[in-house]
Amino acid sequence: MEEADAEAIRALYHGLVGTGKLREEELSSFRRHFDRLPSSYLTTRYMWPGPDDVLLDRMVLADADANKRIAAHARFIQRVQLPCNDDGFGGPPDQAQPTLPELRYKRLLCIVQQEEMLVHEIIFASRDRPGLLSQLSTLMNRVRLHIREAHIFTTTDGFCLSIFHVDGWSREDVKGLIEAIQDELIREKVYNV
Fold first, then answer.
1. Angle at 107 between CA 102 and CA 109, to 5 degrees
2. Cα 68 from Cα 13, distance rounded (Å)
3. What does the pLDDT look like over 94-117, one tens digit per residue?
4. Would you call 151 exposed, middle or buried from its count of C-beta atoms within 10 A (0-12, 13-18, 19+)?
5. 96: number of Cβ within 10 Å
6. How far apart are CA 153 and CA 55, in angstroms?
7. CB neighbours (10 Å) of residue 150?
């Protein structure tokens, strides 16, 4: 491990201990978490959404290991405003162009009716195996989720930590989302590892 990475891990550890989210005696297990993952994990999870994510990832990996199954966790992370694409000039060329007051009204209407997209994060952990990423991607498609971003990490001890940012779930509450994911895992017979 490079010295810069080791220093970042120490700073992260002390920050979590300082907030009471980690106990001082957990330093060695905290370091082992990073030792089992590729160095890109530190950059990906430390920078965004934040340090607490490392604790969440540890929990999901531990759940997969202890229960010998795919562990899944979901949470709402942000609302994204969809851009309004109506500039008022979308009609055919021979159609009269709108007046300035009409353009202002169309723009105001566009702002008022602007849609939002909810983005959720889904974390999967399980024993790594051929075809796992494909199975998880298919699963999310069947739950009607659109993958916006994915980070896949294979551990040195044979686990896979898959982190997806998705849209397509219409509520911030994730109880129904995690139930839909678990139902699909069972239906597709990929729940046990």
1. 95
2. 28
3. 566 667 676 666 666 665 555 788
4. middle
5. 7
6. 16
7. 15
